[in-house]
Structures are given as C-alpha cells and as structure tokens.
C-alpha cells in the first residue's frame, strides 16, 4: 500500500486512539464513584459527574469506533481488492470533516455546554456546536463509504465475474447498512436538534426524537460490530494458523444484518409512552431474528478456530482451544473479545425480551451489557487489530508484545469483574446514569455495596489495561526503532468464495429488502407520532 494511503489510514487511527484516551479515562472515575470513591474533585476541567459521562459516552462509543472503523475498512477494502483507493483527496476530505466535527463537539462538551449524554435526548439542550459537530461526523462517514463504493466499482469493471474478496465484501456490507441506518440520526439532527439548539423553533418532540435516534441507535451497534466480524472471519483464522470454515456462510451472515438490523429500534423504547404496544412487540420479535446471523457467526468462528487448533497439532475434543496461539497479543485480544462478546450477547437476549426488559430497563445492567459488547467485543478486537496494523502502517515493530499480552489479559479479567458487578447492581435495581455515591437512597441499599466493589475493582484493572494500550501505541510510534515485517493476514477458506451464489452481490436486492422492512416497521409509528407532534422547549439542567 502506498505511503500516502498508509498515512491517511494512520491518521484515522490516531484520532480514534486520542478519543479513547480521553473518553475511556473517565470510565475508572465512574466505576470508583460507584464504589464510593469520588475522584472528580481532582479533575479540574470537570464540573460534574455527568459532564464526564457525556465525554465518556460520546468519545468512546461515537468517536473511537467511527474513526477506527473508517480507517480500518478503508485499509481492508484497498488491501483485499489490491488496488489504490478511488480518491485520496476524498479520503482526506472525509477525515477533515469528521475531525472538525469532533473538535466542535469536543469543545462544547469540555466547556460543559453540552452535558446531554451521548443519546442527546431533548428536551436537554446543548450548544449548537455539539449537534453540528456530530452531524459532520456522520456526513464524513458517508464520504468514506462513497470512496469505498467507487473503489469497488472500479475493481468490479476489471473483474466482472469474480467474487469480491471477503474483506472488501464485509466493508461494503458494513457501509451499505450504515448509510441506510444513519438516516434517522441525520433527520433528527437537522430537523429537530439543531433548530432547537439554535432557538429557531419553540421546542421539539422528545418521543419523536427518540424514535429517530433509535432508528439509527440500534443498527449503529452493527456498524461497530461488523468490522470486528470482518477481522474475525477474514483475518483471525489465518493469524491462528488455520482456515475460515465457510466463506459463503460468512457472507450470508454479514448480509442478513442489512435487512434485519434496522427495523428493531423500538426495543429501546419499551417503557416510552406514546408508542403503541403492538409495534413494540413487532420490534421485539424482529430483534430475535438477528439471532440467526449471530448463531451462524458463532458456528463459523468456532469451526474455523477448531480448524486452526487441529492444524497446530490438536487431537482431543477440546485440545484445539488451548493450541491456539495465545501468546500472540493480536490473537489473544481477539479471542478474549469473542468470549466477552458471547457473554454480552446473553444479557442482550434479556434486554430484548419485552417483559424481562422491564426488570433491567435503565439500570446498571444496561451499561454492564454494552461494556461486554461494544466495550469489549468491539473495542478489544480493535486493540488486537492495531497490534499488527500499526506496525504495518508505520513500519515499526510493536514496542512490547509482552505488554500487549498483559493488556489483553487485564482487559479480559477487568471486564469480567466489572461486568459481573454492573449486571448484579442492575438486577438489584441500581439506576444507570446516576452518581450513585451521592445518591442518599443508595445508603438504604446495603445489598448494593458488594457489587459496587466489583465495579470499582474491575474499573481499576481496566484502567491499567487502558494505559498499557495507550503507552504501547505512543511508544511504538516514538521509541520503537526496529523495522517491522508485517503481512496483511488474509485467511483462505475450507469452502471458498466460488461457492457463494452471485446474487449475494446484488446490492439492490439487499438495499430494497432493508428499505421495505424498515418502512413496514417504522412508518405507522412515525406517522402516529408526527400527527401528535408535541413540542417541548429545550432545557439546560446542568
Ligand atoms: C476503561 C474502561 C471503562 C470503564 C471502567 C467504564 C466504566 C463505565 C461506567 C461505570 C459507566 C456507567 C456510568 C453511569 O451509568 O452512571 C459507563 C458508561 C458508559 N460507557 Fe464505559 N467504561 C470503560 C470503557 C468504555 C468503552 C471502551 C466504551 C465504548 C467503546 C464505553 C462506553 C460507555 C457508554 C456508551 C456508557 C454510557 C454512557 C451514558 O449512559 O450516557 N466505556 N462506563
Ligand atoms: Cu438495540
């Protein structure tokens, strides 16, 4: 890959890691606060727990992910199609817009003018720069996807009969899904939040805004997750010394996320008034359909890893698991990510169940769940990817593979303890998004004490892991002098791409199915909410 293109990809990763550095640093503070240790008074730039929580949510879950994904999928597309990006200039334009957006939103949050938490629910009203900034971030991702689609189209013209390589295929699926899904957020931002924050309208409708938010807010989890799947399917089997079990099965699982990920967002609004119960039930049922591609993924990955373990000499039934290259930090991080993700998937089934959701809704259980999924399944995978990708891009060896291995282990152990604590606290009814240490009613709940200690202890172990990661990246960039010899891992498959039917690449079919299902799932509810539009004035409560 050309130097110019490597630089573009690298700069995506630098912004990503920068955002994680600031955003995730808030996490241990929150965890310790829940345990009764308040360190906020020592952080001069934070006016409140909630300002820190807004920074934590936005920078981790919106900025770290978006920049890492944009850089990684740009890399994957160009590397697996074996051709340069359609336009470097367009690539930098996208990066520039996204970065300007992050600076604007970041400024508003750091000056305590947008303490609205990452969901940005009205009637909470932040500074216009915050909403403009996040909108630019989304527009930037559309330009990134345009660049990848155009790159692929050039490739397709020259290779009319070949199957798209799996890596590039996964990148395209991710962005097709995301471009459709992000429309909800764009509409909410442009028609509701920005006018509210500028004061050009008297107010906005909170329930309608939430419906648009979750139209994007559920599928966004697959925008985070599919790039991790791209690595698990098309790279990890090779890194582990084996082959992908089935390329067509992997493709089908990826594709099913296009139609099935969008019409399920109302499952985040089970307790919202003003939305008909029947539609909540429809979305709950559709949510369980997403279980199928997830089960296919679990099956394919286990089969591929078993294949790798056997290629490394395993004989017994479970021997293969221990024969995997656990000493390779990139592999270990991603295997741990898969295990934590599977646990998070289990608590997700509870969230999706209409009646069980009522028990855990808005409790600490929910952040417990998504720290196992996006906070580990995705984040730890991205960390594992960066252990080979950053040496590849910069030509510098990893500063300390041993420290990287310790990093993967500590994230795994820390998250197990933290996740246990959070789920447990949630079951006991402790609310999320609450400064628990300052809540007087918490003293009436001695049963919250032990799980809170688990949260705090897990949070401290996670802090160690986070800083090991950050030190590794900085030290690799500045102190590692030895040149790196890195190959891009590209797994072969036992059953190869030639077995995949060609209609897998009829994009119109998949987009049509997604638009149709999304319309069925949403139009009645949106029409209903629009006809009962009730504006509420924006508020600043912090
Ligand atoms: C260093 C490790 C981390 C620790 C100790 C940590 C801790 C926490 C805690 C205790 C909360 C709950 C706060 C509350 O409900 O009041 C929280 C919320 C959250 N965390 Fe983390 N976290 C960490 C890393 C991450 C990562 C890597 C991500 C995502 C990539 C993430 C995303 C979130 C989000 C989206 C919220 C919800 C914010 C909200 O409710 O507005 N965290 N975190
Ligand atoms: Cu969801």
UniProtKB/TrEMBL annotation:
Q: Which InterPro entries match?
A: Ba3-like_Oxidase_I, Cyt_c_oxase-like_su1_dom, Cyt_c_oxase-like_su1_sf, Cyt_C_Oxase_1, Cyt_c_Oxase_su1_BS
Q: Gene3D superfamilies annotated for this entry?
A: Cytochrome c oxidase-like, subunit I domain (1.20.210.10)
Q: Which Pfam families match?
A: COX1
Question: What topology does it adopt in the membrane?
Answer: Multi-pass membrane protein
Recite the UniProt keywords alphabetically.
Answer: Electron transport, Heme, Iron, Membrane, Metal-binding, Respiratory chain, Transmembrane, Transmembrane helix, Transport
- The Cytochrome oxidase subunit I profile domain is annotated at 1-477
Q: Transmembrane segments in this chain: where? A: 55-78, 90-110, 130-152, 164-187, 207-229, 249-270, 282-305, 331-350, 370-393, 405-428, 448-471, 509-527
The parts of the chain that form a coiled coil are: none
Q: Where in the cell is it found?
A: Membrane
Annotated family: Belongs to the heme-copper respiratory oxidase family.
- Protein name, UniProt field: B(O/a)3-type cytochrome-c oxidase subunit 1
Which organism does this sequence originate in?
A: Geochorda subterranea
């Amino acid at each position: 890959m050309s130097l110019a293109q490597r630089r573009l990809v690298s700069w995506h990763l630098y912004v990503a890691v920068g955002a994680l550095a600031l955003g995730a640093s808030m996490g241990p503070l929150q965890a310790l606060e829940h345990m009764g240790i308040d360190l906020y008074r020592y952080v001069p730039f934070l006016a409140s727990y909630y300002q820190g929580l807004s920074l934590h949510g936005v920078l981790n879950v919106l900025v770290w992910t978006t920049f890492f994904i944009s850089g990684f999928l740009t890399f994957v597309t160009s590397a697996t199609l074996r051709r340069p990006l359609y336009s470097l200039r367009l690539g930098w334009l996208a990066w520039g817009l996204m970065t300007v957006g992050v600076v604007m939103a970041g400024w508003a949050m750091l000056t305590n003018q947008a303490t609205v938490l990452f969901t940005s629910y009205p009637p909470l009203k932040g500074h216009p720069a915050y909403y403009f900034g996040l909108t630019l971030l989304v527009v930037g991702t559309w330009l990134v996807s345009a660049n990848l689609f155009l790159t692929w189209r050039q490739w397709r013209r020259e290779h009319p009969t070949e199957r798209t390589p799996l890596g590039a295929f996964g990148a395209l699926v991710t962005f097709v899904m995301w471009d459709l899904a992000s429309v909800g957020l764009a509409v909410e931002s442009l028609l509701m939040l920005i006018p509210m924050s500028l004061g050009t309208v008297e107010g906005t409708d909170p329930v309608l805004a939430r419906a648009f938010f979750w139209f994007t807010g559920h599928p966004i989890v697959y925008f985070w997750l599919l790039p991790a799947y791209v690595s698990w399917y098309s790279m990890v089997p090779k890194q582990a010394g084996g082959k992908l079990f089935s390329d067509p099965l992997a493709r089908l699982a990826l594709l099913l996320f296009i139609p099935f990920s969008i019409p399920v967002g109302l499952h985040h609004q089970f307790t919202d008034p003003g939305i008909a119960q029947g539609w909540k039930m429809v979305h709950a049922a559709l949510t369980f359909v997403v279980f199928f591609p997830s089960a296919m993924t679990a099956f394919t990955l286990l089969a591929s890893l078993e294949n790798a373990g056997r290629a490394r000499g395993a004989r017994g039934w479970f021997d293969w698991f221990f024969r995997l290259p656990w000493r390779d930090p990139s592999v270990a991080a991603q295997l741990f990510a898969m295990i934590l993700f599977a646990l998070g998937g289990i608590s997700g089934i509870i969230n999706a169940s209409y009646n069980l959701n009522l028990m855990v809704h808005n409790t600490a259980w929910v952040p417990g769940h998504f720290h196992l999924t996006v906070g580990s399944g995705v984040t730890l995978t991205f960390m594992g990817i960066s252990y080979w990708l950053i040496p590849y891009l910069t030509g510098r060896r990893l500063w300390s593979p041993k420290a990287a291995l310790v990093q993967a282990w500590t994230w795994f152990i820390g998250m197990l303890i933290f996740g246990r604590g959070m789920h447990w606290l949630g079951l006991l009814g402790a609310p999320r998004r609450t400064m628990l240490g300052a809540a007087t009613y918490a003293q009436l709940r001695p049963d919250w004490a032990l799980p809170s200690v688990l949260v705090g202890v897990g949070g401290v172990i996670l802090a160690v892991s986070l800083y090991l990661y950050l030190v590794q990246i900085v030290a690799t960039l500045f102190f590692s002098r030895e040149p790196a010899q890195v190959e891009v891992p590209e797994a072969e498959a036992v059953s190869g791409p030639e077995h995949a039917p060609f209609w897998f690449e009829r994009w119109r079919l998949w987009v049509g199915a997604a638009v149709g299902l999304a319309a069925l799932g949403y139009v009645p509810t949106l029409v209903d909410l629009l006809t009962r539009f009730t504006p509420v004035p924006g508020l600043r409560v912090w």
